[in-house]
Design a protein that fits this description.
The protein has a single domain, classed as Phosphoglycerate mutase-like (Rossmann fold), CATH 3.40.50. Helix content is about 35%, strand content about 15%. The protein is built from seven helices and seven strands. It has helices at about 10, 25-35, 50-60, 85, 90-95, 110-130, 140-150; strands at about 1-5, 40-45, 65, 135-140, 155, 170-175, 180-185. Strands 1-4-2-3 form a four-stranded parallel β-sheet. A three-stranded mixed β-sheet has the order 5-7-6. Strand 2, helix 3 (about 50-60) and strand 3 (about 65) form a beta-alpha-beta unit. Helix 6 (about 110-130) crosses helix 7. The longest helix is centred in the middle third of the chain and has 20 residues, at about 110-130. The mean pLDDT is about 95.
Length: about 190
């Protein structure tokens, strides 16, 4: 599982979710060119441009399957804004005070978002288990990865404990006898 590389919105500390379809910036492209990742036979990717571009740069000739439910959270009224722009917003302060439990105004709740991401992951696992020795990658968003690994990752951790930087990710291997996955961080 790889988080997409850097975008201009990421550099500006903006909430870039499922409504803003921005490309990678030059820094993001350079970052990917400096890295190497394990070979894969198939890529499952969020349809957002930043993820599709990341997957294409990492694995040029590998078949790519877009999964809409791998998209980042819909940040609603906070979309494409940064902390400074939201600082005086009572709705933003209420969301912060809730520890992120309140739904984003005009957007998704955390429960909706996590359920959507986990459903997509379960579909991917079902598809890949049918083919012996298939090596698959998922290129998605930080929130998507955290939502999936909070539920299925080992060691068992909380949502924010699975934060991942742009262009980084986790190598997952099945934990024998469970529906969980051992996670090794890929810097």
């Amino acid at each position: 599982m790889i988080r997409h590389s850097v975008t201009a919105g990421n550099l500006e500390g903006r909430y870039i979710g499922s409504r803003t379809d921005e490309p990678l910036c030059e820094e993001g492209i350079r970052l990917l060119k400096s890295r190497s990742y394990p070979p894969v036979d198939r890529i499952y990717v969020s349809p957002m441009r930043r993820c599709v571009e990341t997957a294409g740069l990492l694995w040029k000739e590998v078949p790519m399957i877009q999964k809409p439910d791998l998209r980042e959270c819909d940040f609603g009224a906070f979309e494409n804004k940064n902390y400074q722009e939201l600082g005086d917003s009572p709705a933003y302060q209420a969301w912060i005070d809730s520890g992120g439990v309140l739904p984003f105004p005009e957007g998704e709740s955390m429960e909706q978002f996590k359920a959507r991401c986990r459903r997509a992951f379960e579909e991917i696992v079902e598809e890949t288990e049918k083919e012996k020795d298939l090596r698959a990658a998922i290129v998605a968003h930080g929130g998507t990865i955290m939502a999936i690994l909070e539920e299925y990752g080992l060691p068992k951790r909380a949502y924010f404990d699975y934060q991942v930087k742009n262009g980084c990710g986790y190598l997952l291997t099945p934990a024998e006898g469970t529906r969980r996955w051992n996670c090794q961080y890929l810097p």
